[in-house]
Task: inverse folding
């Protein structure tokens, strides 16, 4: 988060993605977060896994067949266990390619109805444990 000034010169807190104007900015931001932030990495794995579970037909959503071990990582994270250093390294290598799906999830999460936010909040609470 950063401080943003409105027209009257009053400062207000703003989320960094509110200033994004194109997908290149989202891509750079998300890839950096996945690379350097464990909580962001874990959330990304779980959110993309949730998409994989919800979509039964092949429609370009969720994990690709070579990356299905990410589903095992997601199950491990949901059961409140941490990834091993090797698993985390593997996830950091593969998760950046899913930045576009993660971007869509982020946009939906912060621009959706309250009942959907409640569902996504439960995933966030799992990660706090």
Result:
């Amino acid at each position: 988060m950063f401080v943003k000034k409105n027209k009257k010169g009053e400062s207000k807190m703003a989320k960094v993605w509110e200033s994004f104007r194109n997908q290149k900015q989202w891509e750079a931001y998300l890839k950096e977060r996945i690379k350097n932030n464990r909580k962001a990495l874990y959330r990304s794995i779980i959110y993309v896994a949730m998409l994989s579970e919800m979509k039964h037909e092949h429609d370009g959503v969720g994990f690709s067949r070579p990356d299905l071990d990410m589903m095992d990582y997601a199950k491990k994270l949901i059961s409140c266990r941490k990834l091993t250093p090797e698993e985390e390294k593997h996830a950091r290598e593969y998760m950046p390619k899913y930045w576009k799906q993660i971007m869509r999830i982020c946009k939906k999460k912060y621009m959706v109805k309250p009942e959907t936010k409640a569902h996504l909040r439960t995933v966030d609470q799992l990660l706090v444990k």
